[in-house]
């Protein structure tokens, strides 16, 4: 009799039950390194249970270790604490899972495959009440899950020896950054080496272990035990990162640049970044340092070198307060990948929370109908370039000198409505919009054309015609126009806020001649180089610049109340919560989320200056380098946005890069949890924004299509990039 198959019929029989097998009582430990090959055994949950669960993805399973509360104890924990009362591990043969005996009790040990704690050993010790039969079932089910993940098919077709192979070979594929290293872990395609400039000065050096991410196994594989990680100054404000092995042989070398996407973790003593070879193939490297002190010292020097690279000026010229602000930003302890299976589960929870009464098959049929209706809009060589989402029931997509109009239907989808063709000015000249803003209760749209930045055009959306042309001379070119306040487009308000590279002003179309209100015009020093602007509910203004700096105003035409320094990268988009508490700024490879409430006087930075010594914390949101390597392309974010709506709390942040839509849970980010979810399309995303008044649906513009994305279809990076 095949015992594996017999037990499988009992455990796997009910496909609707996500839980396969469970050990209801035990203790959960972590074996944390304390020195060279030394570890301490730390109890994480004194009372816990171990469960093997299905996930939403076929042939993919998780091992969940959950804290068990005594009666009444659970009610004492708030929601955020509850989220931390379970640790989840993706089941893979590489986790080195095995059964053993610990102080007379059955124990299971494995190592984490998650990036931030990769190689960290965990242990679950069963209580005495756990029978041998239950422990054996649990062990066998783990190996069956490993079989299904590896072969992407049911284990019921496997022979007994196919399953036992996982038990026999469990030591052979331990994670690459543990002490167990097999030759097969080193067989990864490595990037080509670059030549180091011949003239340089040493700036910093630290020793560590070098690992390279393998997208095939989703693991970092060890490349060298003892390496010297060096920062070299090759020219004024130019630095290189070089890694040498113990024999002095070059392992890698690259100049410091924004695409490196550096991530530091104090908790796990790791530095992860991206490397691009001459063919622009992308890789992800990891160095694990021997101590937090070594990491901190290296990280501090790295931040200074990156600042000088981006700003082309000396770090020593930065004020102490601004230095501290930027250092804190670089020192966030990223934990986005600490539990990707948890992110997948949260996606499923969102599905339950936001499920309307629609089926995926209906959505597919609806999309097919929309494609047929949109043929007329698509019959040219132009591509979609801009998206504007209305507050009523329309979205607008710019395509050359045409504007496609899409109606939001009752099933959170889109129906093609009509095309506004041949957008022209009063002289019949084509307008190719480079900026569009909905205006006057979505009855109008204000257009700008990059070929004439001193003019704006007001289109009547009911008739599809330009009815007004606004002259805006004397600004060296208007770059952006936005509503007077975040939701002014819900009203008949006429005025708007605009800016050029070094000026900010109010636009009043009721004025004769120039539409710039001179009483609310202010020109600033040329070094500001403004790039984008946003407003809050009460009309406060946040404006950003090409060096990553942000200025906060409560009155147009005056000086800023608060100035926040940048990290050196241009800001390409900015948004604020309705109440002005938070600002999110988009750079090419990361987002900056800033809480502008002064904790001392409880006033916003828009209304009162934040003292230099009390600058707010800037949370830097970015994709993990190993995810970028799996995407196989550099990050280039579109402007990030909060969900919007009158009296609607901001819950989610959305952006995109390449063919990927990315969302962060705003509430969890504020509490220090930076995991994100992903949806991949077959083409690059042009722009995206939430449907007005909620965060369940995201309107996504692709080069040749526009669609509504249910947020519940977002998944964890582990699922999206496999």
UniProtKB/TrEMBL annotation:
Domain Vid27 N-terminal: start-end pairs: 1-167
Domain (Vacuolar import/degradation Vid27 C-terminal) ranges: 383-718
Composition bias, Acidic residues: 346-374
One Pfam family matching this protein: VID27
Gene Ontology CC annotations of this record: cytoplasm; nucleus
Entry-linked InterPro entries: Vid27, VID27_C, Vid27_N, Vid27_PH
Source organism superkingdom: Eukaryota
Protein name according to UniProt: Vacuolar import/degradation Vid27 C-terminal domain-containing protein
Source species: Modicella reniformis
């Amino acid at each position: 009799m095949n015992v594996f198959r017999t037990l499988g019929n009992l455990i796997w029989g009910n496909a609707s039950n996500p839980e396969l097998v469970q050990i209801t009582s035990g203790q959960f430990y972590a074996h944390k390194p304390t020195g060279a090959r030394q570890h301490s055994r730390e109890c994480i949950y004194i009372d816990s249970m171990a469960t093997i669960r299905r996930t939403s993805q076929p042939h993919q399973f998780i091992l969940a270790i959950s804290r068990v509360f005594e009666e009444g104890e659970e009610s004492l924990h708030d929601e955020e604490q509850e989220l931390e009362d379970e640790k989840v591990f993706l089941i893979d043969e590489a986790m080195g899972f095995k059964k053993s005996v610990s102080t007379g009790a059955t124990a299971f040990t494995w190592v984490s495959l998650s990036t931030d704690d990769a190689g960290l050993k965990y242990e679950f010790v069963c209580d005495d009440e756990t029978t041998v039969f239950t422990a054996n079932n649990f062990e066998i089910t783990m190996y069956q899950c490993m079989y299904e993940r590896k072969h992407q098919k049911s284990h019921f077709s496997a022979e007994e020896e196919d399953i036992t192979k996982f038990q026999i070979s469990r030591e052979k594929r331990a994670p690459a950054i543990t002490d167990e290293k097999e030759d097969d872990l080193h067989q990864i395609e490595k990037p080509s080496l670059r030549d180091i400039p011949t003239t340089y000065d040493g700036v910093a050096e630290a020793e560590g272990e070098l690992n390279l991410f393998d997208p095939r196994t989703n693991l970092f594989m060890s490349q060298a035990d003892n390496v010297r990680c060096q920062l070299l100054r090759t020219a004024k404000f130019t630095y290189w990162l070089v890694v040498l092995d113990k024999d002095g042989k070059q392992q890698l070398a690259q100049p410091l640049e924004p695409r490196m996407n550096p991530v530091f973790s104090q908790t796990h003593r790791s530095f992860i970044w991206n490397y691009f070879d001459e063919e622009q193939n992308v890789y992800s490297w990891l160095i694990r340092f021997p101590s937090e002190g070594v990491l901190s010292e290296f990280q501090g020097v790295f931040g200074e070198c990156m600042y000088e690279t981006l700003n082309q000026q000396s770090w020593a010229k930065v004020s102490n307060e601004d230095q501290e602000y930027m250092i804190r930003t670089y020192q966030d302890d990223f934990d986005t990948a600490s539990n990707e299976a948890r992110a997948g589960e949260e996606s499923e929870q969102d599905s339950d929370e936001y499920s309307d009464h629609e089926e995926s098959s209906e959505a597919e049929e609806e999309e097919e109908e929309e494609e047929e209706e949109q043929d007329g809009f698509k019959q040219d060589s132009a591509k979609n370039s801009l998206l504007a989402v209305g507050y009523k029931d329309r979205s607008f997509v710019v395509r050359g000198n045409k504007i496609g109009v899409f109606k939001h239907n009752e099933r959170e989808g889109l129906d093609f409505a009509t095309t506004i063709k041949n957008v022209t000015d009063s002289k019949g000249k084509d307008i190719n919009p480079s900026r569009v803003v909905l205006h006057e209760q979505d009855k109008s749209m204000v257009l700008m054309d990059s070929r004439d930045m001193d003019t704006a055009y007001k289109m009547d959306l009911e008739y599809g015609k330009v009815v007004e042309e606004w002259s805006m001379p004397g600004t060296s070119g208007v770059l952006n126009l936005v509503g007077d306040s975040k939701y002014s487009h819900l009203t008949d308000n006429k005025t708007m806020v605009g800016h050029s590279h070094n000026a900010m002003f109010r636009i009043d179309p009721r004025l004769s001649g120039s539409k710039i209100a001179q009483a609310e015009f202010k020109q600033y020093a040329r070094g500001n180089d403004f790039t984008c602007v946003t407003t809050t509910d009460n009309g406060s203004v946040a404006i950003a610049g090409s060096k990553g700096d942000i200025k906060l105003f409560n009155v147009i035409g005056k000086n800023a109340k608060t100035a926040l320094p940048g990290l050196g990268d241009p800001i390409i988009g900015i948004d604020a919560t309705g109440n002005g508490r938070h600002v999110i700024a988009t750079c090419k490879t990361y987002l900056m989320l800033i809480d502008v409430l002064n904790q001392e006087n409880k006033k916003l930075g828009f209304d009162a200056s934040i003292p230099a010594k009390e600058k707010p914390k800037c949370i830097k949101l970015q994709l993990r380098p190993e995810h970028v390597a799996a995407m196989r392309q550099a990050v280039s974010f579109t402007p990030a946005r909060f969900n919007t709506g009158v009296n609607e709390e901001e819950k989610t942040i959305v952006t995109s890069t390449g063919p990927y839509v990315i969302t962060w849970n705003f509430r969890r980010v504020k509490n220090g949890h930076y995991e994100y979810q992903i949806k991949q399309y077959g083409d690059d995303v042009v722009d995206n924004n939430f449907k007005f008044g909620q965060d369940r649906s995201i309107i996504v513009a692709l080069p040749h299509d526009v669609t509504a994305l249910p947020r519940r279809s977002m998944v964890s990076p582990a699922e999206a990039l496999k």
